[in-house]
Amino acid sequence: xxxxxxxxxxxxxxxxxxxxxxxxxxxxxxxxxxxxxxxxxxxxxxxxxxxxxxxxxxxxxxxxxxxxxxxxxxxxxxxxxxxxxxxxxxxxxxxxxxxxxxxxxxxxxxxxxxxxxxxxxxxxxxxxxxxxxxxxxxxxxxxxxxxxxxxxxxxxxxxxxxxxxxxxxxxxxxxxxxxxxxxxxxxxxxxxxxxxxxxxxxxxxxxxxxxxxxxxxxxxxxxxxxxxxxxxxxxxxxxxxxxxxxxxx
Length: 249
What we know:
The protein contains 7 helices and 12 strands. By secondary structure, it is of the alpha/beta class.
């Protein structure tokens, strides 16, 4: 069985490993595994349980010397010790042994000069489908010559932390370790945590490339090339406002 480099993460005994499956296959497997059902329009519909949105209280960044002065520490970016991350990571990897693993190797950033390669490791087919639809999908040739990823995100909703032992806020934990280039998402089936972690990583890396990351939507006039950029907090209508019949997103 091909493990596609999972051993370097400590995952030596997966039950089966699937890499960059098609949406059709992921939907089929998600239904077979009881993760969701088909809606009347043919889309996969899933329930996320307790967490129906992101959980800011459960987000942490491993505080290391190389990034300490680059992070705006506070209620949004809470520090966690390396030792606590290692403890949680070890238990997470043990949890994933002998389970089916879904990998998506994709790209963030359309410009080749600053795009980054992300490896997303999921225990759920439905979450793998989610990120398959959001990140840039590599061509077959790019996938065959993918090389080393820039960052790895492991999402395992079934693994729950122990706040008393692990130093977390709850059974859920969203932790980024920039030093090890690994992020973990535990205890939450809300797939948006994966997307947001990709954004957070890019937000730290891009300024070093003289690129300003922005939380916005944008559209363009197909004739004049005039561009409009829409800023706003999540849920304030950026995408809605930028969707116009005579302009391209």
